[in-house]
Amino acid sequence: MDALYAKLETLEPGIARLLAHNPSAFTYYGTQSYLVGETEVAVIDPGPDLPEHIEALVHAIAGRRLVAIMCTHTHRDHSPAAQPLANLTGAPIIGCAPLALEAVGPRADAAFDGDYTPDRVLADGDSVEIGGRSVRAVATPGHTSNHLCFAYGDALFTGDHVMGWSTTVVVPPDGEMAAYMASLDKLRQRQDRVYYPAHGPAVTNPQQYVRGLLGHRMQREKQILRLVGEQPRDIPDIVANAYPGLDPRLVTAAGGSVLAHLLDLERRGLVVREEQQWSKAA
What we know:
Blueprint: E1 9-12, E2 15-19, E3 32-37, E4 40-44, H1 51-61, E5 65-71, H2 82-89, E6 93-95, E7 120-121, E8 127-130, E9 133-139, E10 148-152, E11 155-159, H3 177-188, E12 194-197, H4 206-230, H5 235-242, H6 251-267, E13 271-274, E14 277-280
Parallel strand pairs: 4-5, 5-6, 6-7, 11-12
Antiparallel strand pairs: 1-2, 2-3, 3-4, 8-9, 9-10, 10-11, 13-14
Helix pairs in contact: 3-4, 5-6
């Protein structure tokens, strides 16, 4: 995959991709920044503040007018390159609202970008004109409360809400399982042709894929209910039983997702907790 870093790939007319060199257990081969448009362009998810990636983005724009630098959310693998790119091009930063939370304990995924300062925040349904075509915001809270997807024609840029290689990390306090599930259902009802996520391959069967993600989360919920119904359990015990053979690098993230499920189940009156122990409600 090294040969693909900093190399512009045309995916279809008006949509191209640049891969940032920030591979990890949470980013797959790295963050995919997208260039949308032809004579005028927008950059979606400019990515981490890596000089070689920012240089590649400037080169890819190649004298065209950069209308907008658009961020799906403010994790540090998505938005930090926005300001340096804005400084170099004069383009406005448009997209998600600013959000930066300090982690309690070890982070389960990327930290927040505390320096992100948008020129314009998009609400659900707001749009930006790129060469006579609209890039429209689709609010999809869940992974983070400020997460947006961006629709361009019948293509949807899904950030971390739907990824082509892995399920999404949903970690409280900002990540919320009920919001995430509602956002998935919102996408299920759309008629997008293809998803372009920030990590992993394109999703060419969007409705079927989203139904699978919803089903997976519902099965995980049933599994958690069964485990806490057998006996009171803490989160590490649930993770050990629900994720056998899990990559140790992902244990913290799995614990975060289990907590997100438990908080949703608690809100619905299906589980109770006493200190660190969770049980099925009577």
